[in-house]
Every structure is written in structure tokens, then in C-alpha cells.
Amino acid sequence: MISGNVFSQKCIPSTIPFHNGEQIDYDVYYNMGKIWVPAGRVRFTANDTIYNKQNCFFFDGKGKSLKNYDWFFKVRDRYSAIVEKEKFQPLRFTRNVNEGSFSLYYDYVFDNKNEKAKVYEDRKDNSKYNIIDFPNCSYDVMTSVYYARTLDYSAMKVNDSIPLTMMVDKEIYNSLHIKYLGRDTIEDQYGKKYSCLIISPLLIEGTIFKEGDNMKVYITDDLNRIPIYIEAEILVGSIKAYVKSIKNLKHPLNTIK
Question: Taking the model in full, what pTM does it have?
């Protein structure tokens, strides 16, 4: 149940806080009992590309567990999305995951005019596909990550939320939201301090994350909206991620000295 006000969803962002060449790396830690142990690394990149003669963003996210953690739960994940720049519409999304004994491959090609998507599940045979509905103003998982950074949180109060329609594993979820939890100062693993906005996306249960408002994301309260720190409950235990490096930002990064 959502408390607070619900703000309307804007399909076309008024501002874009990232540009070609942005790269953000994270160190991921896992809570084992009362001890936090290094468990993995994640990298997000945003680059310009041309797709079907359109100017687009190419968003790429790669996550992997550390080798000395693979025995417990080996992760080799990649999420990538091609998004048309002018209207911020996803044109293609690929999910390629290997988590423990679970593996999955989906390649979505979106037809926004007809609000449909072709879904390929065999990377070696593109003659087989399913057709699913994909309503306008809907997003895949990867595009949602960057879309959340474009939102204007300045007029929001604690527990206000913005609705989000997202596709997860060929299903459309139109009752999701991003909740605003206020402001705080966060310190990264190198001692730098940042003034941050705190948001909490409503999650769909998958192979790692629990369903619900179990994730907090601290994003810089500046023009970049960089996720600096993330904490979340997972199906077994909890994780947190600290930013490790930030490259090629669109705007100067504000830190608290």
C-alpha cells in the first residue's frame, strides 16, 4: 500500500543527467551472519549509438561475483538496452543471466507504434519468437534504472511516489512505483561524503531480490543523480553496494568536503 502523494509519470524526461561515455563501477558486499564480505562487482555504462537509423543510448550493465565467492553463488549477469533519445523509448533489451544453477536469455525487440514486442529466447535461432504486449510508457529493467535518474524529486515529500510500468520476464507490471524517502548524507568507501536523495523502487521477486520495498538507493542530490550507495534484502540475507569509480560525468559531481 502506498502512503503519501502519487505523482504522475512523465514518459518523456525533461532532463537527461547522463551522456556518452559515463561509467560507474560498484563493489558489492554480502551479509554473512554479522560480517559483511566482498562478494561481487557491477559496472554500468551509457554510450551513444545508432540503431535503425535513430540516435539512441546504449545502456549496459554487467555484474559478477568474485572468484572466491563463486563456490557459494556464482553470478555472471548482463543487462543491456537500446533507448531512442528523443522520446526515451526502449527499442531493444537483452537479459543474459547466470545465477547459481539458473540461466536465462531474453532478447526483446520493441515495436512502440503497435505496442508490441518480439521476444527471442534462443540466441542461436532467431526464427522462433513470441509476441507480447508492451504498452507505451513502459520500460524494461535496464531502462528503468536510467529513467529513475531523470525524475524530478524536488517537489516530493517523504513517502510520495511516482508510478512505474515495467516489463519483467515477458510480463507487464503497471502497479510498481518509485518511492521518495527523503535526504541524507552518505559516505563512500573512500571517505568522500555526498548529499543524497533516497529512493526505494518496488521490486518484483526474482532469483536474487525479494519482492517489495526492500531496496534503498542513495543518489547524488545534484544534476547527475548518480547512485552512490545501494542496500537491499535478497532471498537469502542482504547486500549493499558502494560506488567504486565514476567516469565521464555530464556535470561536475558535488561532494561535501
Answer: 0.91
